[in-house]
Amino acid sequence: MPQMAPISWLTLFIAFSIILLLFNSLNFFMYLPSSPSTSPKSSIAQTPLNWKW
Fold first, then answer.
1. pLDDT reported for residue 1
2. Shortest CA distance to 8 belongs to which of 22, 19, 16?
3. Could you tell me which of 10, 11, 13 has the C-alpha nearest to residue 21?
């Protein structure tokens, strides 16, 4: 909308950028990957790969 002042566009851009960065950083740091000692790797090796073409 051309009626809006440019300062409001800048304020909205900064606000949405900060919200986007906060949301992404919270999602990144809240993710807890499972440790390799708890995940059994032998079950992956035991399952046969049956390719059916």
1. 54
2. 16
3. 13
Q: Which two tokens stand for residue 7?
A: 């300062």
HEC per residue, the chain: CCCCCHHHHHHHHHHHHHHHHHHHHHHHHHCCCCCCCCCCCHHHHHCCCCCCC
Band (pLDDT 50/70/90 cuts) for residue 23 is: very high
Core vs surface per residue 2-32: b (16+ CB within 10 A) or e: eeeeeeeeeeeeeeeeeeeeeeeeeeeeeee
Q: What is the mean pLDDT of the chain?
A: 77
